[in-house]
Write a structure and sequence with these properties.
Serine Threonine Protein Phosphatase 5, Tetratricopeptide repeat, 64% helix
Length: 160
């Protein structure tokens, strides 16, 4: 298993060079690169090896933020199911729900995953997202995420 990680790491390093200083060595680098590139197997492998799901890099980004920003919704969903903190914000102060809604889906089936992620984010930290409810509903409306918009309206109504 460790040999395949090295091969994957070398591939990822060639694919996208990064000046990032990783917190926890090789496995942490693999976690960040896997989240950024949507390599769910790599993310699963390093988390199975005990790497914390909420590592933070020098730009104060977590693997969850990288997965959301790059549209890797299945990877983001897996990170959330593994306990990733939904209340993290990116360097511009955007919440995970905002990042989710600003990232366009690549394929139609992504919409189901986007809805599931929104539900998980909201269920864990409703107060975090309630204050910006109008922004989130408007983002969903602009992107024609009608199912997500309906879900958000329902969740915000239940929270009120």
């Amino acid at each position: 298993m460790k040999h395949s990680k090295w091969v994957l790491f070398i591939f990822l390093s060639c694919y996208r060079l990064s000046a990032m200083q990783y917190v926890n060595g090789f496995d942490a680098a693999l976690l960040f690169q896997g989240a950024r590139s949507g390599l769910l197997n790599a993310v699963q492998s390093v988390l199975d090896d005990g790497v914390p799901v909420d590592l933070i890099d020098e730009d104060y980004r977590t693997p969850l933020i990288y997965a959301l920003v790059n549209g890797h919704f299945y990877t983001a969903l897996y990170l959330l199911k593994q306990g990733a903190n939904p209340s993290v914000r990116d360097e511009k102060g955007r919440t995970t729900l905002e990042l989710l809604l600003r990232t366009p889906p690549r394929k139609e089936e992504d919409m189901q995953v986007i809805s599931e992620i929104a539900r998980i984010l909201f269920s864990r930290k409703p107060y975090l997202f309630y204050q910006d409810k109008d922004l989130f509903v408007e983002l969903a409306r602009q992107k024609n995420y009608s199912a997500v918009e309906d879900l958000l309206l329902s969740l915000f109504e239940d929270c009120a």
